[in-house]
Amino acid sequence: MATVASLQTHLVEELADLLDAEDQLTEALPKLARSASSKVLRLAFQKHLKETRGHITRLKQALRAIGEKPAPKTCKGMKGLLQEGETVMNKTPEGALRDAVMITGAQKVEHYEMASYGTARTYAEVLGETTIARLLAQTLREEKGADRTLTQIAEKSVNEDAAEEWQASEEEGVLSRSAEWAGSAATSASRNLASGVRRVASAVGMVDGRRSTTRRRGSRAQRSPRSRRRTAAKKR
Ligand SMILES: [Fe+2]
């Protein structure tokens, strides 16, 4: 591994890293656009794909401007973010919830890029590389714009739609659990009916003393006259 001996070396490495990151994104964005259920989200991914191609052009210009060949260096950060996003996306059913999942992944990517472009732009400024600083600042503005667009799409519709989708499936789950419960409850209800009737009969004094031992202590009206007299004596 080459030593990072100066801020200029670091800047060159960052540019090469970003070049690979953007290459990876041009592979991922078409799949995200195809998978989006929301039309505005699909258009946002397609728009950012076009912008990303422009970012690659600017990075190549920046590397040439600093006297380097525009060769990409594997960006492990972007690889990890895209893999993680794809894993979650693949296990989410199509719809608003999957749109929300894709927005999560895409915004993580945008913030990673914003951090990389922001710091690289500042290093270019410090090193007096004004052309490179200008190119990176242009791209940084577009990354921030893409991030804002994703936030707006999420807040205007996707998040609430995703929440309703979850509630709908929860309700379906509750209904099917209720149906199962109703089936078993019907069986036990018929079993309990006889004893329930006996309890009521006992409460109104229609059964003999053996059943009265299971009577619950209830209201004054449910208690026997003897019990009421005992309670009244205690109070005095
Ligand atoms: Fe980009």
Detailed description of the structure:
The protein is mostly helical and 236 residues long. It has a single domain (7-174), classed as Ferritin (Up-down Bundle). Helix content is 81%, strand content 0%. The protein has seven helices and no strands. α1 runs antiparallel to α2 (39-65), α1 (7-35) packs antiparallel against α4 (96-126) and α4 packs antiparallel against α5. The longest helix is centred in the C-terminal third of the chain and has 74 residues, at 130-203. The chain is elongated, with a radius of gyration of 35 Å. Mean pLDDT is 84; it is low at 207-236.
The CATH homology group name: Ferritin, core subunit, four-helix bundle
Q: Any idea what the shape is?
A: elongated
- Secondary structure: number of strands: 0
Alpha-beta classification: mainly alpha
Helical run tally = 7
- Count of structural domains: 1
State the end-to-end distance: 95 Å
Tell me the helix content: over 70%
| Rg, Å, rounded | 35 Å
Question: Largest beta sheet, briefly?
Answer: none
CATH structural fold name: Ferritin
Strand content: under 5%
Using the 3D structure, state the CATH architecture: Up-down Bundle
Order of SSEs, N→C? Answer: HHHHHHH
Model regions low in confidence, pLDDT < 50 over at least 5 residues: 207-236
What ions, cofactors and ligands are bound? fe (ii) ion
Mean pLDDT: 84
Using the coordinates above, name the CATH class: Mainly Alpha
